[in-house]
Structures are given as structure tokens and as C-alpha cells.
TrEMBL record:
Keywords: Glycoprotein, Membrane, Methyltransferase, Signal-anchor, Transferase, Transmembrane, Transmembrane helix. The keyword Aminoacyl-tRNA synthetase does not apply. It is found in: Endomembrane system; Membrane. Belongs to the methyltransferase superfamily. It is a single-pass type II membrane protein. This is Methyltransferase. Transmembrane segments: none annotated. InterPro entries: Put_SAM_MeTrfase (IPR004159), SAM-dependent_MTases_sf (IPR029063). The lineage of its organism: Eukaryota, Viridiplantae, Streptophyta, Embryophyta, Tracheophyta. GO terms for biological process: methylation. It comes from Vitis rotundifolia (Muscadine grape). It holds the Pfam family Methyltransf_29. The keyword Glycoprotein applies.
Length: 396
């Protein structure tokens, strides 16, 4: 598996190589006593990921990373990351929520960071607060963290004031990098809200799926979804049943049966496809439900983009609780990736969900989008009702 992911040095972002940088972050988050796993980091959002070397070198630690480029102009970098077989996508960070559920990452990483987190009253920083789990880290490597010339000290002071208002604690600042931790401190949040240091979000701001929702300049109060249970490390996390699944009609018995079903189904799929495990690297589950398909692939040398359609219930939170990655999406629109990206598409009951969406969203359009993002000579798995259909792109 290392031969699939290993690149010498790590990339231009890391002067002494990505492994040295990752170990340094582990030292900074654990007072020199451990690595990122011992700091409780198992899922990372890498903002401005470049060619995703950070993600590649986290793989030996079994840390899953959603690498994304915050601008459309970085498409060539995302293309290279995906060619390496690393999970990545474009997701512009501007006026809308990012297409990920709240409280899903133990670390948000931004190296050589050019995002203006301090602007507009810190509205983008508050979006990171939505995405971070309690006791999660924000890693910021940019000139304001270490330079004293130009406007950098002013920017740094704004960042410190904003993070303090959100009750984040600055735990380390050295070698051009600053790290904050999102503290689990409701009394601090309530006090700062009373002091009008930030606006409190309406209760409905965090309901449903975070797809095409406008950003709001506010902080979510109250106990978060992920903090109702202590999540174990991977791979044990793959078996986690989230209490929130009951709210969308999935009890623990159904959760277990879904996991067993996909273990058997994946073995059946590979027998039918008659391919080597190493022939497939990039997989997309277009209607992931609770991530059973991705869990069944966990021992394979692949990564899975778990997509939950925006018009369905928010099961993506449960997918992240299982230590997996994914995004919300509306399949009436193109997915944010370049052509010929994925080796395998899995569409379980996707067409039956979209068959009555009206003239503006035809099944033919979804098929064309699947054709766009699928590599030639590779596979589509389509499950309609109780019938499984496997086709290669050349057969369609």
C-alpha cells in the first residue's frame, strides 16, 4: 500500500519533508509526548491542500483527511492529488457553508495559509468552529503567526481576539505555526455571548444538511452531536453507532445488519468485476446512507468519497462519526471535481431517489455527470431496488 501513496519529500509546503512536519504538529499538540493520534486526531480538514502531501503522509497513522482547495483556480492541484489516489475536492470557501456536517473534524489544517480568517468579523473562522469537534485543533501556518513586519501584527491581533471570543485556546506557537484548541467550555461561551463578543446562531442554523446554506456571523451554542459520546480511535470508530441515527429512523439493529450486508455485498461485487484490488483507488459512493459500503472497503487500498444527497436526511454526521469522510451534494448539479476522477462509482438506490425531481433534474443528466467523472475502462455499480447492475464505462 505504501507504494501507492509514497512521494519523496512530501511537497513544496514542507521544508524538511511532510513526516517531520506531522511529527512536529504531534509534539506541539501533546507537549512533546506523542503524535497526532495520541492527541485524538483521526479526521482532518486540510484547507488549501496543494497536491495533498499532508494527507498522503497521514495515511500511515490511519488519519483520514478531506483535502480541499478553497478556490476554483486550484483545480490542477486537486487533479494531481486525485491522480495520487488521495481524497480531495474543490469547495470554495466564501459565502456558503462548506458541504460537511457540523462537529466532524478533530483538526482543521491550513499551511502556507492565504485565507483571510480575520476579515468580515471572522465569519470564515466561525465556519471552522462549526466544523471542529470540541477539543479539536486549528493549525495555522502563515506570516501573521511569525512575522512582525507589514500588517501581519495587526492581523495576528485580530485572530487572537476572534479566537478568544470563541473560547479557543492558543496552545502552541513556534516554527512559523500556531495551534489553537476548541475548548469544551460552555460557561465561557455563555459569558462571551452575554458580553456581545459574538452573535448566537438561531436553533435552525445547524438543522438538516449543510448544502447551499448561507454563512452566518454566529456561533452555535449547546452540546454538540459528537460530544454526546466519546468516539474511539480508528479502526474501532468504524463500528460506532451514533445516537443521532435514531432521529432519522435507523436503530442499532438496522445499523448492524447494514454493516454485515455490505461486507457480503462488496465481496460479491469484486468477484463479479474480476479486478485486482490495486486496480481501483478512487471510489465514490453516490448515495452513502450510513457508510456501510465504505466500511466494507476499509481493508482495501482505496479511499471512498461518501456522498449524501442534500435532499435526504443528514446521515453524513453518522458517517463522520465512523471515522470516514464525505460531503453533501445535490446530484441535480455537477460534483466539484474534474473529469475522469474516479475508478468506481457506487449508486445504491440513487435513481429511485431522483426519479421524481422534475424536469430540471433528469436521470439522464445524472448519468452524464457519472460519465464525466468516471475514468475509461472502469466500473459503475448501480443498485435499483433489489437488482444489482455492474457495467464498465465502455459498455454503456
Amino acid at each position: 500500500m505504501n507504494q501507492l501513496w509514497w512521494f519523496p519529500g512530501g511537497g513544496t509546503h514542507f521544508k524538511h519533508g511532510a513526516p517531520e512536519y506531522i511529527q512536529r504538529l504531534g509534539n506541539m499538540t501533546t507537549n512533546e509526548t506523542g503524535d497526532l493520534r495520541s492527541a485524538g486526531v483521526f479526521q482532518v480538514l486540510d484547507v488549501g491542500c496543494g497536491v495533498a502531501s499532508f494527507s498522503a503522509y497521514l495515511l500511515p497513522l490511519d488519519i483520514q483527511t478531506m483535502s480541499f482547495a478553497p478556490k476554483d483556480g486550484h483545480e490542477n492541484q486537486i487533479q494531481f492529488a486525485l491522480e495520487r489516489g488521495i481524497g480531495a475536492m474543490i469547495s470554495a470557501i466564501s459565502t456558503k457553508q462548506l458541504p460537511y456536517p457540523s462537529n466532524s473534524f478533530e483538526m482543521v489544517h491550513c499551511s502556507r495559509c492565504r485565507v483571510d480568517w480575520h476579515e468580515n468579523d471572522g465569519i470564515l473562522l466561525k465556519e471552522l468552529d462549526r466544523l471542529l469537534r470540541y477539543n479539536g485543533y486549528f493549525v495555522y501556518s502563515a506570516p501573521p503567526a511569525y512575522r512582525k513586519d507589514k500588517d501581519f501584527p495587526i492581523i495576528w491581533d485580530k485572530l487572537v481576539n476572534l479566537t478568544s471570543a470563541m473560547c479557543w485556546k492558543l496552545i502552541a506557537r513556534k516554527v512559523q505555526t500556531a495551534i489553537w484548541i476548541k475548548q469544551e467550555n460552555q460557561s465561557c461561551l455563555l459569558h462571551n455571548a452575554e458580553q456581545n463578543l459574538f452573535n448566537v446562531c438561531d436553533p435552525d442554523y445547524d438543522s438538516g444538511t449543510s448544502w447551499n446554506k448561507p454563512l452566518r456571523n454566529c456561533i452555535i451554542l449547546g452540546t454538540s452531536r459528537s460530544d454526546s459520546q466519546k468516539l474511539p480511535p480508528r479502526p474501532e470508530r468504524l463500528s460506532v453507532y451514533s445516537g443521532g441515527l435514531n432521529a432519522i429512523g435507523i436503530n442499532e439493529e438496522r445499523f448492524i445488519s447494514d454493516t454485515i450486508f455490505w461486507q457480503d455485498q462488496v465481496s460479491h461485487y469484486y468477484r463479479l468485476m474480476n479486478v485486482n484490488k490495486t486496480d481501483i483507488r478512487n471510489v465514490m459512493d453516490m448515495n452513502a446512507l450510513i457508510g456501510g459500503f465504505a466500511v466494507a472497503l476499509n481493508t482495501f487500498p482505496v479511499w471512498v468519497m461518501n456522498v449524501v444527497p442534500a435532499s435526504m436526511n443528514n446521515s453524513l454526521s453518522a458517517i463522520y462519526d465512523r471515522g470516514l469522510i464525505g460531503a453533501f451534494h445535490d446530484w441535480c448539479e455537477p460534483f466539484s471535481t474534474y473529469p475522469r476522477t474516479y475508478d468506481l462509482l457506487h449508486a445504491n438506490h440513487l435513481f429511485s431517489h431522483y426519479q421524481n425531481h422534475g424536469e430540471g433534474c433528469l436521470l439522464e443528466d445524472i448519468m452524464l455527470e457519472m460519465d464525466r467523472i468516471l475514468r475509461p475502462q472502469v466500473m459503475i455499480l448501480i443498485k435499483l431496488f433489489f437488482d444489482a447492475c455492474i457495467r464498465s464505462k465502455t459498455e454503456i
